[in-house]
Every structure is written in C-alpha cells, then in structure tokens.
C-alpha cells in the first residue's frame, strides 16, 4: 500500500467515525464506548464502527384500549437474549452497539424499559442509574404508561416505576432468566391455553375465570375447572380464590382436593378492608400456591395480589402495578391503581409488624397484627346470593370486555417464530401439554 493510499484510507476511516459520532450525539451510554440507546428520526445504516438495531416492530404490545405497555416478561427475556448475543458476537466485538428507537412515543417508552431493564438485570445498575442514563444527553422525557380502561387516564406509571418494580422482583427471586421458560410463558398466557400467568412463582397464579363447561363460544375458548387440575397439581396450586360472581360450582374444585374461597366484589371496583384482610390471611395460611381469578383475571385479581406484594415484600404501589403488568399485561385498572397507593402505608405497617412478631426481643402491636386473625368461615364458598348482585344481568362488565378483547388476539409470530392456530380454528380447551396446540372436535 502506497503512502498516499494509506493516508486516503486513514482519512476515510476518520470521516466514517465522525459520521458515527454525529449519529450518536445525544445518545445515552450504558456501557462506555460499547452500548448506547438513541432516538433517531430515520433508519441508520450500520458502519465499520457501529452496529444499529431496532426492536420497535419486533416486540409489540397487544393493547386492550389506549394502554400501550410495558411489554411482557417474555418480550423482555427475548430482548435480553438478543442483546447478550450481540454483545458476545465475534463480528461485533470492536463495534459500538446502538439500540435505536423512533419518535413514536409509545414504542419509544417500551424500548426504554427494555434496555433500562437490561441494565438493571445484567449490568447491575440501580433503577435510578439506568433511568438517569436514559434521560441524559438530548433525550426528552418519556410518555408514562396507563391502564387498560376505556376512560381517561388518571394514573401515570413511569419508566422508573417499571425499572424499580423489575429490580424488586429480581431481588426477591421472582424471575431468573437463566432458568426462565419463555415457551411455557407464551403458551399459557394465550386464551386457548388457559390464560394464566405466575406473578410470584410458587405462590401466586393469576388466571381468567373458569366456566361451567369447556367449549368455544363465538370463537372464544372457555375452560371448565377440570381443565386446570393437571397443571395446578403439577405446580402445587392448592387454593383457588374467586373474586367474581359464581359461574361454576366451587365443589368441582373442592371435590378434587383444592381449597376454594369466594371473596366477591364488583367488577372494576376496589375491595373492602374486610375482603383485603381475608385475602391476605388466606394466602398467609396456605401451604402451596394460590390461584386467583375474577372475570378476566386482571383488575380485581391484580389489585389483591398487589396488596400482598406491598405487605410481604414491601413493594411500593407503583412497583407492584409495574411488576404485575409485566407478568400479566392489563392488570390493575382505574380506581384500583389509586386504591393501592392509598393502602401502601397500611400494608407496609402490617407487614413490618408481622415480621417483627418473629423477633421475641421486640414488642409488637397486637392490635395491628390481630387484623389478620379474622375467622374465615364466611370467606369459604357458601353461595351467598346477595354478594353477586353487582354482576348479574345481561350487560357486559369490564371483565367481559377485556376478556373478549384478549380472546380475539392473533398469535405473535414475531416473538416465537412458530405458527399458532388462530381463534377461528378449533383449538382444544384443554392445556395439559405446553408448547403445542392440539386441534380436536369439541
């Protein structure tokens, strides 16, 4: 190579690097000289020094109404696998890796949670450190997430809330991406396969309410209690709590060896103090996991599980809402969000008092702890007809609408890469085996 050609090559290399640097002005840096997050107006081309990638159209939130995120746990897992692969790739060893997003504020917020959560999980940054990086440089503020209700948004869930919820769940061992079974998660979250998600593995399973008979009605798969028995037994689910009106006979669970409790309150509303205390006590005395459902397994279900997270794991209300939505999108709706905020201090106080009881050297207020010692005789399934008036009638409730919307969703081939039968095809209402949908005649 001649001296002139060497100079020419050096100049070109410098120019290319300057062009890359211009693109990265205002980008946030997660790993020095290695990993960046940027908001760009147009799709950039990767260069000799920089590799660009975007996930805006790969990981897409399935909304109910005006809700748009955060993305679920399976998508977060797949994103982390994708980014880890890039960072370990031999061909990208000497390149800067830039996760870029566009100016769609909804997609931008979801992208920020993905890379922010990666920084928390794998780079061991605190949520606050990750968030400060995301808003550094010329990055504008992010659109807060909202609930899955039809009305106006009255509660904002921020990017920082989501990162703090994920960090709290990680600290308590609620998930481990080294052992996480993404195929199982994506299989069972689908309506035709049971529509359930673990919120706290081994303790809380949130699911859509069973029906008297397994069938497909107007393209929507319905599952009888018996359809859940094999999975529940394999995963040590010993107790079922129903929060909606009676649709199936609870004896079908109790005759099969499961404990069953009815703690009804009206769809879209918040639980009374009595119901909240009974729910917490049931969960505290139960050996094994508790499967909780209302109509869609989103609003009332997420609200009471959120109370348990605040009491026993000291989640803030926002952290609880964020984590539950990452596990089961659409959870905790409307006034239920404010209810959790209002209950946070009391749940923390009760939890602290209960934990202090285990330390004999410390005096504990019996008045606070005795709230958890109520008799549960009225909480067990008794078929009290006056409890169910709030959901009787022919009008569709919030839970009916949310469940119908979820039932009409199409498979997400972008995340799984496999073909799943659509709801217009016959899909079995039994889900004893995961990962495969079996067509059958009903």
What does this structure look like?
The protein is built from 15 helices and eleven strands. Helix 5 crosses helix 11 and helix 10 packs parallel to helix 12. A hairpin with a 3-residue loop joins strand 1 and strand 2. The chain has a five-stranded mixed beta sheet. A four-stranded mixed beta sheet has the order 1-2-4-3, covered by helices on one side. The chain has two domains: 141 residues, Protein-Tyrosine Phosphatase, Chain A, CATH 3.90.190.10; 230 residues, Protein-Tyrosine Phosphatase, Chain A (Alpha-Beta Complex). 39% of the residues lie in helices and 11% in strands. The protein is α/β, with parallel strands linked by helices. The protein is globular.
Number of helices: 15
The quaternary organization reads as single chain
Named at the architecture level, the CATH assignment of the largest domain is Alpha-Beta Complex
Q: Outline the low-pLDDT stretches.
A: 5-19, 363-379, 382-390, 414-442
The beta-strand count equals 11
Calculate the terminal CA-CA distance, rounded to whole Å. Answer: 75 Å
Q: Using the coordinates above, name the CATH class of the largest domain.
A: Alpha Beta
- Could you estimate the helical fraction of the residues in percent? 25-40%
Radius of gyration: 24 Å
Q: List the secondary-structure elements in sequence, H or E.
A: HEEEHEHHHHEEEEHEHEHEHHHHHH
For the biggest sheet, the summary is: 5 strands, mixed
SS strand fraction: 5-15%
How many domain regions?
2
CATH homologous superfamily classification of the largest domain: Protein tyrosine phosphatase superfamily
Sheet/helix structural class: alpha/beta
According to CATH, the fold-level topology of the largest domain is: Protein-Tyrosine Phosphatase, Chain A
Strand order of the largest sheet: 5-6-11-9-10
Overall form: globular
Mean pLDDT value: 84
Keywords: Cell cycle, Cell division, Cell projection, Cytoplasm, Cytoskeleton, Hydrolase, Nucleus, Phosphoprotein, Protein phosphatase
Family: Belongs to the protein-tyrosine phosphatase family. Non-receptor class CDC14 subfamily.
Subcellular location: Cell projection, Kinocilium; Cytoplasm, Cytoskeleton, Microtubule organizing center, Centrosome; Cytoplasm, Cytoskeleton, Spindle pole; Nucleus
InterPro entries: CDC14_C, DSPn, Prot-tyrosine_phosphatase-like, PTP, Tyr_Pase_AS, Tyr_Pase_cat, Tyr_Pase_dom, TYR_PHOSPHATASE_DUAL_dom
């Amino acid at each position: 190579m001649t001296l002139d050609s060497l100079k020419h090559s050096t100049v070109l290399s410098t120019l290319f690097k300057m062009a890359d640097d211009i693109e990265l002005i205002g980008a946030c840096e997660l790993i020095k000289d290695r990993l960046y997050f940027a908001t760009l107006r147009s799709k950039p081309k990767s260069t000799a020094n920089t590799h660009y990638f975007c996930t805006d159209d790969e990981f897409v939130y399935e909304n109910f109404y005006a809700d748009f995120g955060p993305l679920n746990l399976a998508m977060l897992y797949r994103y982390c696998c994708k980014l880890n692969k890039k960072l370990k790739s031999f061909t990208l060893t000497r390149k800067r890796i830039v996760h870029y997003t566009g100016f769609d504020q909804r997609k931008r917020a979801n992208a920020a949670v993905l890379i922010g959560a990666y920084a928390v999980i794998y780079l061991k940054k605190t949520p606050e450190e990750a968030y400060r990086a995301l808003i550094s440089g010329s990055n504008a503020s992010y659109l807060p997430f909202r609930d899955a209700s039809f009305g106006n948004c009255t509660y904002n869930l921020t990017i920082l809330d989501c990162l703090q919820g994920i960090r709290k769940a990680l600290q308590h061992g609620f998930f481990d991406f080294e052992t996480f079974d993404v195929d199982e998660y994506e299989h069972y979250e689908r309506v035709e396969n049971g529509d359930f998600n673990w919120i706290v593995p081994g303790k809380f399973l949130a699911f859509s309410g069973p029906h008297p008979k397994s069938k497909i009605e107007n393209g929507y798969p319905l599952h009888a209690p018996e359809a859940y028995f094999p999975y529940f037994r394999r995963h040590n689910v010993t107790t079922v709590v129903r929060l909606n009106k009676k649709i199936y006979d609870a004896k079908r669970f109790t005759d099969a060896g499961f404990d069953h409790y009815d703690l009804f309150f009206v769809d879209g509303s918040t639980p009374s103090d009595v119901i909240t205390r009974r729910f917490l006590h049931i969960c505290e005395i139960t050996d094994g996991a508790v499967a909780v459902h209302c109509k869609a397994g989103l609003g009332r279900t997420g609200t009471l599980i959120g109370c348990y997270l605040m009491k026993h794991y000291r989640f803030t209300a926002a952290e609880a809402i964020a984590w539950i939505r990452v596990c089961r999108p659409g959870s905790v709706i409307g006034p239920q969000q404010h209810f959790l905020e209002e209950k946070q201090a009391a749940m923390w106080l009760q939890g602290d008092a209960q934990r202090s009881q285990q330390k004999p050297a410390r005096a504990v207020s019996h008045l606070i702890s005795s709230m958890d010692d109520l008799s549960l005789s009225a909480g067990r399934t008794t078929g009290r007809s006056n409890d169910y008036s709030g959901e009787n009638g022919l009008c569709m409730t919030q839970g009916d609408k949310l469940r119908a919307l979820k039932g009409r969703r199409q498979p997400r081939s972008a995340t799984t890469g496999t073909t799943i039968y659509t709801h217009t095809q016959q899909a079995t209402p039994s889900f004893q085996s995961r990962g495969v949908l079996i067509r059958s005649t009903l």
